[in-house]
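job 3f2a | input accepted
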Amino acid sequence: MADEGTVLRVEVSAEPQHVYEVALDLESYPEWAGGVRTVQVTAEDEYGRPERADFVVDAMIKEVSYTLVYDYDFDNGFAWSAIPNDDIRSLEGRYEFNDLDDGCTEVVYALKVDPAFTVPGFLRKQAEKQIVGTALRGLKKQAEATG
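job 3f2a | predicted structure (147 res):
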């Protein structure tokens, strides 16, 4: 992502591998990721990781549906991008899980969203920050509770 949109970080009191596994359990997102209504993994790679998943989220203005395609081409995380549709022109994101050598993990979440419906720029940026912040808080809580 050239322009990374919103990038936030959080420290999680759990090992990187565990946090990574929690983040990969897409179908549990409705339990802990605010605004996520449903997730259905529709394709997995040879390692059982999601390759493609359908999401329905409450985007405050309206309910939004999109399909994400996942990329695992770097060592400490994964990335995703949406297939453009009537709700999303583009959506790109990534998680990085950095080992802090004390049993903790620094999680970096980057997200850039371009909805296919009209949203003023300042509201889109504010929504990105809220989505990323809510997701990081949820991921931290879930990983620490299950780790």
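job 3f2a | The mean pLDDT is 91.
job 3f2a | closed
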